[in-house]
UniProtKB/TrEMBL annotation:
Domain Major facilitator superfamily associated: 8-358
Residue ranges crossing the lipid bilayer per the database entry: 12-30, 42-60, 72-89, 95-114, 135-153, 159-179, 200-218, 238-255, 262-282, 288-307, 327-349, 355-378
UniProt protein name: MFS transporter, PPP family, 3-phenylpropionic acid transporter
One example GO MF annotation: lactose:proton symporter activity
A cellular-component GO term for this protein: plasma membrane
Gene3D superfamilies: MFS general substrate transporter like domains
Length: 387
């Protein structure tokens, strides 16, 4: 079928980009530790990514909406990813790593959001589940975490740039085959972004989910160090990510079956509660094998939370500003939350260890779930009044 064929490059893009993302998320903290950085310094480097994302994601989203193209913005960002990663991995001093890291993340951070924005739009055009497209990103993440983890155990963490460049090159090549978005409206103007900022339900929702997304980002950054603290290896870190992302892929693949039946905000709240339970359990374990086994909860928490939150945000933003709105969501999820998660997480794991870090994450996720329950009650009352 032509429609399925037109989705193949997009699925391949998500597969290959998330394969590169795995390498950074799963193994960069271990690579920086190899370079001689301590937990707090690693936290600073990991916080540079989200800091760059706060600037880069709205900027590239605005450029995408202004010029009515996702395809060519993706090409520019992936080209930047390849060039800047070579420089980033050559740096040795903390200051040089921070500066090169900012440039590197400026190009890499919008790619996931733009790919998902394109996927959401193509799913709407073809009347299919977005999860059936997005699951290929999770498959790429899972395959890469398993294979690259084993490779790096054998050859050494210092060679992680080579698998990164391989998957990045594949991502660049498939952009030439992408089907771009079709937008019939006038080009977006800078003043139109005020519509998003003045959207109170959107702003409140993005603020409340930060209490949960911050915990997700902190765990992403430090789960590898926590596993090694408990006595695990790089290979075990890769297996842990594989288990987590395999369950995430399953959730994405099946999401279309149950998503339409219930209010998406309820799924966000349920996922927030499960996040809290997950972190408290992680805090209590004392063997790395338990973390690996419990990683199946990643799919149930992140998979459900991300899909439901993205769909809820899509309903709150006008079609004219879809890329900008989606990347604003991404800037909160992976930007501001990432800065807080990396800095607080780095200080906690350095001073008190991984158990204390995960206990704090449990309390934060619980607070976020309570805020979202209150938000749901208030928005439901407003809808009843309007009707």
């Amino acid at each position: 079928m032509p429609d399925n064929q037109s989705l193949t490059p997009l699925k391949m893009l998500l597969f290959s980009f998330h394969a590169t993302n795995t390498i950074i998320i799963s193994f960069l903290p271990l690579y920086l530790e190899y370079k001689g950085l301590n937990g707090t310094e690693i936290g600073w480097v990991l916080a540079v990514g989200p800091l760059a994302a706060i600037v880069a994601q709205p900027f590239w989203g605005y450029m995408s909406d202004k010029y009515k193209t996702v395809k060519y913005i993706l090409f520019i960002c992936i080209s930047g990813l390849l060039i800047s990663s070579v420089v980033f991995f050559q740096m040795n001093s903390l200051v040089a790593i921070l500066l090169a890291g900012f440039v590197f993340y400026f190009f890499t951070s919008p790619i996931g959001g733009l790919g998902d924005s394109l996927g959401q739009r193509r799913a709407d055009e073809l009347n299919i589940s977005f999860g059936s497209i997005r699951t290929w990103g999770s498959i790429g993440f899972a395959v890469s975490s398993l294979i690259v983890g084993q490779i790096l155990t054998e050859i050494g963490i210092q060679y992680m740039i080579w698998p990164y460049l391989f998957f990045g090159t594949v991502a660049l090549l498939v952009t030439f085959r992408l089907t771009d978005v079709k937008v019939d409206s006038d080009p977006v103007q800078f003043r139109d972004i005020k519509m998003l900022i003045q959207n109170k339900p959107l702003m409140l929702f993005l603020f409340f989910i930060m209490f949960i997304t911050m915990t997700h980002r902190a765990s992403d950054s430090f789960i590898g160090l926590y596993i090694t603290q408990l006595g695990g290896s790089e290979g075990m870190v890769g297996v842990a990510w594989f288990v987590g992302v395999a369950s995430e892929a399953l959730v994405f693949a099946l999401a279309g079956r149950w998503f339409r039946k219930y209010h998406t905000l309820m799924f966000v709240i349920i996922a927030g509660i499960l996040y809290s339970v997950r972190w408290f359990v992680y805090a209590a374990v004392n063997e790395p094998i338990y973390i690996i086994i419990l990683q199946f909860l990643h799919g149930i928490t992140f998979g459900v939370f991300y899909l439901a939150a993205l769909e809820y945000v899509t309903r709150l933003i006008p079609k004219l500003l879809q890329s900008t709105g989606h990347l604003m969501f991404y800037a909160i999820f992976f930007g501001i939350s990432g800065i807080a998660g990396s800095l607080i997480g780095g200080a906690l794991i350095d001073s008190y260890g991984g158990g204390t870090l995960y206990a704090v994450l449990g309390y934060s996720a619980a607070a976020g779930a309570i805020f979202l329950i209150t938000y749901h009650a208030l928005t439901s009352k407003n809808r009843v009044r309007e009707q």
